């Protein structure tokens, strides 16, 4: 499937070049890259194929895992499901004739609390988040923590004695999993508690919530993923929706025990299984 899209983008670029016209690069990511000023080596079929694999995996497995995890806790906690259904009553009253917008669903505090707690409990990726320290005449710091000058020097190994006396940015890696389970920020971190996100919350909670990472290299599909999660949960758990019950499923089928870039449960798990009535 990826190869077909790459071939289509390449053929479209060649046709427009022959006609002397500009190709519409907003149609697909492949057309955007093909129509860019990147060197030809960066627009090879192999490179575009890799880009397609990343987008395909990032746009499917991550959202599916998050929805599965959140759905388990909603179905296994009747009080969460009841409160969520009550909140969705007005927004989903005429579904499917009228589908609420993402903006409308974002205004529902308990739905957002459930989603944030799901993203906190099982981040979409468990790889390290790349950060860089700040520098000043007093030395290097990562957020509010000073970095040992000896660590700073070893990380750069400057050849010049002059450079050795000057502070430099230090690369630092942090896993979202450890940030999300820090008991100093999230009391009882291994409990699924949407209520922790309601009312006045500790600013550190929002600062440490990084399921999509932060900065210029954060997840390009973050907004699409959040829109999908909001609407899917609203449809599945609206009042008068088909009744779902867990079938031979417990918490061990969702809790992370393996780091395969995506967090995964025990290997012999059959996943979250439900019956629909």
What does this entry look like structurally?
- Helix 4 (61-76) crosses helix 5 and helix 4 crosses helix 7.
- The chain is globular, with a radius of gyration of 23 Å.
- It starts with a helix and ends with a strand.
- The chain has 277 residues and is an alpha+beta fold.
- It has helices at residues 2-19, 29-34, 45-58, 61-76, 78-88, 102-106, 109-121, 149-156, 161-164, 176-180, 203-208, 222-236; strands spanning 128-132, 134-136, 139-142, 145-146, 171-175, 244-246, 258-260, 262-264, 274-276.
- The protein has a three-stranded antiparallel beta sheet, with no helix packed on it. A two-stranded antiparallel sheet has the order 1-5. The protein has a two-stranded antiparallel ribbon with strand order 6-9.
Short description:
With 277 residues, the chain is α+β, with helices and mostly antiparallel strands.
Low-confidence stretches: 151-166
Query: In total, how many beta strands?
Result: 9
Task: Specify the helix fraction band.
Answer: 40-55%
Main sheet?
Answer: 3 strands, antiparallel
- If you compute it from the alpha carbons, what radius of gyration comes out, rounded to the nearest whole angstrom? 23 Å
Oligomer: single chain
Structural class: alpha+beta
Q: Mean pLDDT across all residues, rounded? A: 85
Q: Spatial order of the strands in the main sheet?
A: 2-3-4
What is the general shape?
A: globular
Order of helices and strands, N to C? HHHHHHHEEEEHHEHHHEEEE
First-last Cα distance: 36 Å
- Supply the number of helical segments: 12
Strand content: 5-15%
């Amino acid at each position: 499937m990826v190869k077909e899209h790459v071939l289509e983008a390449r053929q479209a670029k060649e046709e427009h070049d022959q006609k002397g016209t500009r190709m519409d690069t907003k149609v697909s990511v492949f057309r955007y890259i093909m129509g860019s000023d990147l060197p030809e080596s960066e627009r090879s079929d192999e490179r575009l194929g890799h880009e397609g694999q990343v987008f395909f995996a990032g746009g499917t497995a991550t959202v599916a895992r998050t929805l599965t995890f959140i759905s388990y806790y909603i179905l296994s906690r009747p009080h969460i499901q009841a409160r969520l259904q009550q909140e969705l009553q007005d927004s989903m009253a005429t579904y499917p004739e009228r589908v609420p917008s993402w903006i409308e669903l974002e205004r529902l505090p308990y739905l957002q609390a459930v989603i944030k707690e799901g993203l906190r409990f099982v981040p979409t990726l468990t790889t390290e988040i790349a950060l860089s320290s700040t520098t000043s005449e007093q030395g290097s710091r990562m957020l509010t923590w000073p970095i040992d000058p000896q660590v700073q020097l070893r990380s750069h190994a400057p050849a010049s004695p002059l450079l050795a006396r000057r502070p430099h940015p230090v690369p630092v890696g942090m896993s979202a999993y450890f940030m999300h389970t820090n008991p100093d920020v999230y009391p009882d971190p291994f409990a699924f508690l949407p209520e922790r996100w309601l009312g006045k919350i500790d600013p550190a909670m929002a600062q440490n919530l990084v399921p999509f990472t932060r900065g210029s290299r954060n997840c390009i599909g973050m907004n699409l993923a959040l829109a999908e999660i909001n609407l899917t949960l609203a449809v599945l758990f609206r009042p008068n929706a088909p009744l779902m019950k867990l079938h031979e499923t417990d918490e061990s089928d969702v809790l992370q025990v393996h780091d395969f870039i995506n967090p995964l449960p025990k290997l012999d798990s059959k996943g979250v299984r439900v019956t629909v009535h």
